Amino acid sequence: MKKLEINDHLKGILCIIAAAAGFSMMTFFVRISGNVPTMQKVFFRNAVALLIAVITIIAKKDGFYIARGNRFDILMRCLFGTSGVILNFYAIDRLELSDANMLNKLSPFFAILLSVPILKEKPTRKDVAATVIAFMGALFIIRPSGNNLQLVPALAGLYSGFGAGTAYVFVRKLGKKGERTPIIVMCFSLFSCIVSLPFIIADYHPMDLRQWLCLIMAGVSAALGQFGITTAYKFAPAKDISVFDYTQVIFAAILGILFLNEVPQVLSIIGYVIIIGVAVYRWQLAKTKK
Length: 290
Prior knowledge:
Elements: H1 2-32, H2 38-60, H3 71-92, H4 97-104, H5 107-119, H6 125-142, H7 151-176, H8 181-202, H9 209-235, H10 238-241, H11 247-260, H12 266-288
Helix pairs in contact: 1-9, 1-11, 2-3, 2-8, 2-9, 3-7, 3-8, 4-7, 4-11, 5-6, 5-7, 6-12
């Protein structure tokens, strides 16, 4: 019995690392798709995820019904998730891949703050301290100054973490209500496509074969990330494996160095160490409470 538990734990770690690789590849393909408007990238990325979610629902024969009590929470998940993705893609096009990924990975700390008004969960003093330190680490990545041309995309990246964190809180709330994962993914993807579609109609940028392939692969990679995370948490609880999600920053840094000639600045690396260090601390703290 114990051997099965260990195997499931390892499977959970492998799945969440696969998810991190998927999300890092998504940001990479979004970047190399080139001179394509942000909203156009958002549309094609979510169109692929929408197709996969619909096929999954049809295959399971579960139906597309959404409980009346869940509709507002799904709307909030869609609003914050979509705005987070849009600004994440904006940041990806203008920052180093590792910086954009790291700012987006502040989402768990935003989730701690937002869980207070949304889920009525009271964070511990250690949770609050960890969140404050994580945001101090983010300042090393954002590097605010009067002449910093990357300040706006860095702030966009920071909001992407806020949007994702808020969306995850509503996903958790929906999970407690028993809402199905494919329905949540489908609604989010459909909402994002609807929001981005008018921008594409108004200013469609013709794409060559390489750009089409890049955005399709971005969608496939994002789907790998979504299903990887979902599967990972079926094998092991979040408190045991969530820290491995931060390998996404390492994957992004490797892709940036190998293919984009991006070497993270020293201050950014300090920010990575602080944020990941805090994440590891919270992970160890959660394990001691088991």
